[in-house]
Write a structure and sequence with these properties.
mainly alpha, 0% strand
């Protein structure tokens, strides 16, 4: 919430700064009446989507999506009213249109600020379980490293088979390498697993 307010304040200050540089009246851009109409429109458009027990993040997402719609609708109505009341003259056409599209600017500001805020929150939420997974993996790696395999328990033939298995060779490839049958390799692997108290080839590596 604080970050949202800070971003809004920064954007407003920047717009005022630009207005001063361009020698334009900043108050014309920030019309309290139009801003009030815009906010009221956003709230009304959000009502159908609101439910009991909704999180603040969900409310912000709904508000962000409806901010652009509220800006479009208010802009359309302002242009429409200006036209039917004959307020738009050919000489002042562009000036009147510039004032009437202010709600689009308000909608864009709300959309950008809330979008960045939502994205930051999502990233933070995702980061927590990822950090937990990394910690778990790191802990598992440490436990595996701490547990040293005692190859002195193995016979000479079993050591040869274990070394080739650590390199990633299959039982058939080990048999071809050592000129023994695949069944013999399987028997050696079974003995290796029992003596080293492991369950898979991966633990040999």
């Amino acid at each position: 919430m604080k970050r949202t307010i800070k971003k809004l304040a920064a954007m407003v200050l920047y717009m005022i700064f630009l207005c001063c540089l361009l020698k334009t009246e900043a108050l014309l851009l920030f019309s309290p009446k139009y801003i009030g109409m815009f906010l009221a429109g956003c709230i009304i458009l959000c009502i159908p989507y609101l439910e009991k027990g909704m999180r603040w993040e969900d409310v912000k997402t709904i508000f962000r999506k409806n901010a652009i719609m509220a800006g479009y609708l208010e802009t359309f109505m302002l242009i429409y009213v200006s036209m039917i009341q004959n307020r738009i003259l050919l000489e002042t056409l562009m000036a009147e249109l510039a004032l009437d599209i202010r709600p689009l600017f308000y909608g864009f500001v709300c959309y950008v600020i809330l979008k960045e805020e939502s994205r930051t929150q999502i990233q933070e939420d995702k980061k927590k379980p990822m950090d937990e997974d990394r910690d778990a993996e790191a802990g598992a790696e440490k436990r595996e490293k701490k547990r040293e395999l005692d190859f002195s328990k193995l016979t000479r033939a079993e050591k040869q088979v274990a070394e080739l298995a650590r390199r990633g060779l299959t039982n058939r490839e080990i048999g071809e390498e050592l000129f023994i049958s695949e069944a013999t390799v399987k028997k050696h692997m079974s003995n290796i697993f029992d003596k080293l108290e492991i369950d898979s080839r991966r633990e040999l590596r």
